[in-house]
């Protein structure tokens, strides 16, 4: 179902973690976050207000968490990113629940945009 109210808005945040179990235990114990696992390298979280995920297939870096925006039309958003100086780091791909791409903004920040399947 399209989410018109979320088009172009921050929708999800991903953290890269070196140790999935330790990260989940920390955020569960300290902040009360709840988790849903999608295999050994990915776990989504909710804190009751914001949702996001932990990925262990990439190492944590200096850039911090990955901010993910939502788009009604993923292809149109990808085209706009390119036209305005963004660099596509990962072409559109499917994941359980939708599709997304990753890009660097003109300042070098890594972000992503997702859409429903």
Description:
There is one protein chain. The longest helix is centred in the first third of the chain and has 12 residues, at 20-31. By secondary structure, the chain is of the alpha+beta class. Helices cover 19% and strands 42% of the residues. An eight-stranded mixed sheet has the order 2-3-4-1-5-8-7-6, covered by helices on one side. The protein is built from two helices and eight strands.
Q: Structural class, from secondary structure content?
A: alpha+beta
Largest sheet: 8 strands, mixed
Overall 3D form: globular
What is the number of beta strands?
A: 8
Residue stretches low in confidence (pLDDT < 50, at least 5 long) are none
What's the Cα radius of gyration? 14 Å
Order of helices and strands: EHEEEEHEEE
Keywords:
2 helices; globular; 117 residues; 8 strands; alpha+beta
How do you describe this structure in short?
This protein is of the alpha+beta class and 117 residues long.
List the helices and strands and how they pair.
Layout: E1 10-16, H1 20-31, E2 34-37, E3 42-46, E4 51-55, E5 66-70, H2 74-83, E6 87-95, E7 98-104, E8 110-116
Parallel strand pairs: 1-4, 5-8
Antiparallel strand pairs: 1-5, 2-3, 3-4, 6-7, 7-8
């Amino acid at each position: 179902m399209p989410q018109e109210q979320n088009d172009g808005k921050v929708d999800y945040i991903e953290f890269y973690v070196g140790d999935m179990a330790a990260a989940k235990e920390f955020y569960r114990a300290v902040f009360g976050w709840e988790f849903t696992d999608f295999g050994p390298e990915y776990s989504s979280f909710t804190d009751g207000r914001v949702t996001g995920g932990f990925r262990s297939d990439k190492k944590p870096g200096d850039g911090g968490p990955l901010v993910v925006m939502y788009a009604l039309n993923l292809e149109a958003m990808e085209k706009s990113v390119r036209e305005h100086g963004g660099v596509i780091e990962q072409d559109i791909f499917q994941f359980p629940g939708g599709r997304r791409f990753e890009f660097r903004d003109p300042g070098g920040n890594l972000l992503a945009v997702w859409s429903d399947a």
